[in-house]
Amino acid sequence: MNLRSALRRIAHELGLKGYYTHDDVIKELRSRHPSLIAAESQRLETIALKRILSDVDAKQAKTYNAEQGEFFPELAGFPGSYDARTVGLTDQKGVRVLLQLLPVKVVRAIANYAKPPKKNSSPQGRLKSYLEELSSHIQSDAEMFGEVIKRSRKK
């Protein structure tokens, strides 16, 4: 069993008993599978650090900090860096580039970029479509979603 499978299984088991939190799942994982966590510790640490760094990269610089060396106070309020692949500077995944080091042409493209809406690409959008699909099987807003799904299968 791998870590993801164990987390999924425990979350499902706890969910069948009622409400649960991520802390409940993690506590149970630590109790049942400490060796899985130990085996994955460095990978987990790397994932956590990358997540934190992504959050830091995505945050807009709120104020000028003189300790940041070449940081321009005029750029406060903008993301400090961009994904170099997304802005067309490289094909390499995960490479970042500081806003101040981007050519004006690329900055113009970023400033004018408008993401087209994707139809039903979000989990909420897909769920909404699925609810519409199941609408003829819904008898009450109080019934459990799983019961509606089971009923829809009996066509």
Characterization of the model:
- With 155 residues, this protein is mainly alpha-helical.
- The protein is 52% helix and 4% strand.
- The protein has six helices and two strands, in the order αααββααα.
- The chain has helices at residues 3-17, 22-32, 34-58, 104-112, 123-134, 145-153; strands at residues 81-83, 96-98.
- A two-stranded antiparallel sheet has the order 1-2.
- Helix 1 packs across helix 2.
- The longest helix has 25 residues, at 34-58.
- The radius of gyration is 23 Å and the shape is flat.
- The mean pLDDT is 83.
Please compute the radius of gyration using only Cα atoms: 23 Å
Helix content: 40-55%
Number of DSSP strands? 2
- Report the uncertain regions: none
Cα(first) to Cα(last) distance is 37 Å
**What's the oligomerization state?**
single chain
Enumerate how many helices there are, as a single number: 6
Proportion in β-strands = under 5%
Mean pLDDT across all amino acids? 83
Largest sheet: 2 strands, antiparallel
* Order of neighbouring strands in the sheet with most strands: 1-2
| SS content category | mainly alpha
Order of helices and strands: HHHEEHHH
Overall spatial form: flat
